[in-house]
Amino acid sequence: MAGKNSQPRKLNNPAMGWLLGRVFRLWRSAISQSVKPMGMTEARWSVMMKLRTLGEGVSQHTLASELGIELPSLNRTVNQLVELNLVERREHPSDKRCKCLWFTPAGNQQLQTLETFVGTVRTELTQGITDEELDGMFNVLKKIESNACALLDKPTEGGL
Fold this sequence. Notes:
- It contains six helices and two strands, in the order ααααββαα.
- By secondary structure, the protein is mainly α.
- The chain has a domain at about 40-120: Winged helix-like DNA-binding domain superfamily/Winged helix DNA-binding domain (Arc Repressor Mutant, subunit A, Orthogonal Bundle).
- It has a two-stranded antiparallel ribbon.
- Strand 1 and strand 2 form a beta hairpin.
- About 10% of the residues are buried.
């Protein structure tokens, strides 16, 4: 982290943080628009994709934390996914109070379709960008994430 006497770094305009936020919102909106015909809302597809990333059997508490949302908000979305027969809750093997999430067979099928749609959007959004540029951007973002977590005294999220 920069010392107290160091000058603030000059970043390109528009401000980098603003641009990161805008790209994030546009990226998510593009995915949401793509999967809308599947009956997927942003909340639903976000939960399904993060559950895939974290792995089945993850607790609702861990999933909420990784998504950066409150447990009651996650519960509403999980209730919808349960009603749609896409996920199911199971008791944790050693803590009966804790509920863990698993995909149903229909959920696994929906997840495959969802991943296809998301992959298509990713491809469209990264047109004209080389693999090396994407790798470099990823590495820079991971460093910014790490610095932000250190500044806020938080563990890094999302693995890697």
